[in-house]
Design goal:
By secondary structure, the chain is α/β, with parallel strands linked by helices. About 50% of the residues lie in helices and about 15% in strands. It contains ten helices and seven strands. Strand 2, helix 3 and strand 3 form a beta-alpha-beta unit. Helix 2 crosses helix 10, helix 3 runs parallel beside helix 4 and helix 4 packs parallel to helix 5.
Length: about 220
Amino acid sequence: MRHEVVEQLISHKLIVIIRVKDPSDIEGIVQCMSDAGVLAVEVTSNTPGYEMAITQLRQQFPHMLIGAGTVTDHRIAKRAIKAGAQFLVTPNTNEAIVRHAHALDVPVVMGAMTPTDIVDASQFNADIIKLFPAGPMGANYLQALAQGPFLDTYFFPVGGIDASNIDAWFDSGASGVGIGGSLAQPVYSPQQAEQLTRNVSEIVAKINAKELTRKAS
């Protein structure tokens, strides 16, 4: 299961991050993600009721990968996996999380910023490196890492990525991206749902077009 999930994440190249104050908003957001072609979402652990949300989303959207985000220690990892999380995403570099998750055949997208963080996460056997926070560092920083000392590393930058700059991140060596913020806002009307689905579809289309170009070159 773990390796299959990793392959799916890398193939799809997009994880949408859901962090809301009201858990009742989650289903509507994920429905828009599904309608737009998104196949992987994470519900952050600082979202109220995130465990129940993960369990419910697994039932309501069986074709999607449902993960847990903001997993900062093994206790959160344990609760998230028990709730049904199919992958974990961390903001930090923590070996205990990887050990616990891998023992249960669950992959980890591990947060790292510096070269030392990246080496540590790799030595801990993290499945994907979440470059975080990526926005303040910029795509050139990723390029220096991904096209320099870390050629064989799967990087998913997170932070400050949107439709206007996503191409630059992939050109710089991203294997995928994580996007939250405006891409995962609550919807309270059919019009808002339509607009959110349209916005997310634009991101998905850009990613698919970039992948087609890469394969053709």
